[in-house]
Every structure is written in structure tokens, then in C-alpha cells.
């Protein structure tokens, strides 16, 4: 095992990684405050805000990501709009309630066909 020591005071260093993309390696001395960072040179620091992201669309990058993040109910409405009312059931089994049919179809086990 190797323990790195502070070049200023000789005490043990603590090593952490800042949660950035890409990550920044930080070594610091808790005794004297010496600090070393390896990573991005242009860093913007902002205060942590304890909040819940209510609008997940903020994090979505593509239409495919938006579709993958939909609930069954949202997908049902999406399919109804996309398919212009075409039911996922064969015509003989359709009972005219497309929303219920699509929701049932989404919850079925996927077939390999």
C-alpha cells in the first residue's frame, strides 16, 4: 500500500474525485489545506441546490430519449396520435376503445416476431 503525503507539511493526503464530466481528481491535505487538482483547467463552480428535477424533458437529448422515458400512459397517447386511431388488435377483436387497447398491448410480453 502507498500513502501519498503532503509536499508542504508531510501529513497524509486525502484523494477524492469531483463529480464532473470528465471527473477531476483532487488531492488535499486536511492538516494544512494544501490542494492539487488534475483535470479541466476552466472550471465553473456553482452552489449545490437541493431540488428535484420536475421536468425530465430538461435532461432529454433526442426524440428517441424522450420516447424511451415515457410512461405506459404517455406511450398510449403517443401511439394513438401516431397511428391515427389504428388499433393494435386485429379488427375482429377491436372494441373501439383504442386507449385501452394500446395500454393493454404495451403491458404485454414482447414477441420476437
Please provide a written account of the structure.
By secondary structure, the chain is of the alpha+beta class. It folds into two domains: 1-40, N-terminal domain of TfIIb (Single Sheet); 56-107, no CATH class. It has helices at 63-68, 72-83, 98-107, and strands at 13-18, 24-29, 35-38. A three-stranded antiparallel β-sheet has the order 1-2-3, with no helix packed on it. Helix 2 packs across helix 3 (98-107).
Question: Could you give a short description of this structure?
Answer:
This protein is about 25% helix and about 15% strand. It has about 110 residues and is an alpha+beta fold. The chain folds into two domains: about 1-40, N-terminal domain of TfIIb, CATH 2.20.25; about 55-105, no CATH class.
Largest beta-sheet characterization: 3 strands, antiparallel
Strand content: 5-15%
Shape: rod-shaped
Secondary-structure-derived class: alpha+beta
Helix content percent band: 10-25%
What is the typical, i.e. mean, pLDDT? 77
Cα radius of gyration in angstroms: 27 Å
Task: Calculate the terminal CA-CA distance, rounded to whole Å.
Answer: 55 Å
- What is the overall number of helices? 3
When the domains are counted, the total is: 2
Q: How do the strands line up in the largest sheet?
A: 1-2-3
- The counted number of beta strands is 3
Regions with pLDDT < 50 over 5+ consecutive residues? none
Which sequence of SSEs, written as H and E, runs from N to C?
EEEHHH
